[in-house]
Design goal:
CATH topology: 2,3-Dihydroxybiphenyl 1,2-Dioxygenase, domain 1
Distance between the termini: 62 Å
CATH class: Alpha Beta
Helix content: 10-25%
Largest sheet: 8 strands, mixed
Radius of gyration: 19 Å
Strand order of the largest sheet: 2-3-4-1-13-16-15-14
Number of helices: 6
Strand content: 25-35%
Length: 329
């Protein structure tokens, strides 16, 4: 079998939230991301699916959420993405600490990791998130969304995810098969275990890092946890090549599933983390103009015929607007 086409990095991360309005307010107003798509959970149409991205929905920038209001809080542990980290421009963490103070966001002291400065914090559901200062190159593919946060501080897509694993070695072999190469290791700081953190890098410009940490911490899925992490397989051919490699390793990937804005393959890696392989197209502008992304509830495919029923079952939400926030000050 020929070697699979390497993944360029993270495509999106999907998490579980509680109250949908609270989720919208935090990720749009507090963190300054764009609501690029307001849709439904295609496996549970009674729940929203929100997609928060850069200004253009660039692959490698989508943090997505299933908000289930009455779901119990989960706990982060083995077999989960334990941390999701975003890139922010060099020198912007002072801005973010001041902003977190203003908005009452719970955050921790900065730490140094692999020569970079990291600011850990939690969203309103307790989801562990990090901001990492990096130098943003002039040709970076991300486009900052600046309705709430200035360009010099705006989030610029994913930096990394951290996987907590009981036995890291099989997962490491899988990551290497997918095109990630080990680039560094060090004793972890800011994690409960204090064990060796191994960093693996893809070749893409955004969301290129996956960190692996050993842990025996028990986990429970619920609000405040990651549901799955998706990796870029830009074309159907790229996706098929990695799917075949995953299958040959003894894992059980699904057949391709049409998710309307991308096509997906899912599987649980050896340690239990749910992985997705996602194509880069057709993208979020395939059914809405760029300047209208997120303005309406988009119902993929067969769900459009059930619009009245679905809308009646969803709670009303209001998208934060900068002009409204200024009027409230």
């Amino acid at each position: 079998m020929t070697d699979p086409t390497p993944s360029p990095g993270i495509h999106h991360v999907t998490c579980i939230a509680g109250d949908p309005q609270q989720n919208l307010g935090f990720w749009v107003e507090t963190l300054g991301l764009r609501l690029a798509k307001r849709s439904i959970n295609q496996d549970d149409p009674s729940a929203y699916h929100f997609f928060f991205t850069d200004a253009e929905g660039t692959p490698g920038t989508s943090m997505t959420f299933f908000p289930w209001k009455d779901l119990p809080r989960g706990s982060v542990g083995t077999g989960q993405v334990s941390r999701t980290a975003f890139r922010v421009p060099d020198g912007s963490l002072d801005y973010w600490e001041d902003r977190f103070d203003d908005y009452g966001v719970e955050y921790d002291d900065r730490i140094e990791r692999f020569g970079e400065t990291v600011l850990p914090f939690r969203d309103p559901d307790g989801l562990p998130v990090e901001l990492v200062e990096v130098e943003i190159p002039d040709d970076d593919p991300t486009v900052p969304w600046t309705e709430f946060v200035p360009e010099e501080a705006a989030i610029r897509g994913f930096h990394s995810v951290t996987l907590w694993e009981a036995d890291p070695e099989p997962t490491i072999n899988l990551l290497e098969t997918m095109g990630f190469e080990e680039v560094a290791s060090e004793q972890s700081e800011g994690d409960a275990q204090g064990d060796e953190r191994q960093r693996f890098a893809a070749q893409g410009p955004v969301g290129k890092y996956v960190d692996v940490l050993p842990t025996i911490e028990s986990s429970r899925q619920g609000r405040g946890t990651v549901h799955h992490v998706a990796f870029q397989t830009p074309t159907d051919e790229d996706q098929a090549s990695i799917r075949n490699a995953v299958l040959s390793m003894g894992l059980r990937p699904t057949t391709q599933i049409n998710r309307h804005w991308f096509r997906s393959v899912y599987f649980r890696e050896f340690g239990g983390v749910l992985f997705e392989l996602a194509t880069n197209g057709p993208g979020y502008t395939s059914d809405e103009p760029l300047d209208e992304l997120g303005e309406r509830l988009v119902l993929p495919g067969e769900f459009e015929d059930r619009r009245d029923e679905i809308e009646a079952g969803l709670p009303d939400v209001t998208i934060p607007r900068a002009e409204s926030a200024e009027a409230d000050d």
